[in-house]
Amino acid sequence: MRLRVSSPQISAPGTPNGKLNLSPSGLLAWCVKVTAADGNVDPAERQLLLSLADKCGVEPDRVEQMIEMALAGRLDVPDPPDKLTAHLWLTAMAAAAMADGQVRPPEGQLLNLAAQRFGFSPEDVALLLRQQYAQHFAQAKEELRTARTQ
User: Which domain holds residue 17?
Assistant: First the structure.
């Protein structure tokens, strides 16, 4: 059995046609696939996926099913419909890969393969990862500051 993920559009006021070709379930499926690429989904990665799923309106049980299917290599993922959407998905994938503070080789390989497929270079992926690392580091610093003041 394979799990297929549909690709509905979401509204985006201010864009030319009022729609952004960003599929919440497709974005989530890509994040699940990149997160599971190393054969493991640790608690921090799982929490990120569940948080993203909540934002995408996907039930936690569905996320667990996606994770199981991805770990088994049976998660069919839709392609982003355009380069802008692909960039947004790659950014979200980079965030998922960086959730545990490091990008493991299988995660990096999947990011690079996805990027190449949509016309992005390894340098583009490296930039996305550096941006995610900087955000991850800044958030950790802020959490330490907050913990010290309590």
Answer: 3-149
Task: Tokens for 55, please give them.
Answer: 């934002």
Average pLDDT, the chain: 79
Question: Tens of pLDDT along 47-67?
Answer: 878 887 887 788 999 999 999
Q: Which CATH number covers residue 58?
A: 1.10.3680
Residues 6 or more apart whose Cβ sits within 8 Å of residue 72: none
Q: What stretches in the chain show pLDDT beneath 70?
A: 1-23
The total number of structural domains in the chain stands at: 1
Distances (CA, A) of 52 to 16, 48, 69, 101, 108: 26, 6, 18, 17, 20
Could you tell me the CA-to-CA distances from 9 to 48, 64, 74, 81, 138 in Å, in that order?
A: 22, 23, 24, 10, 32
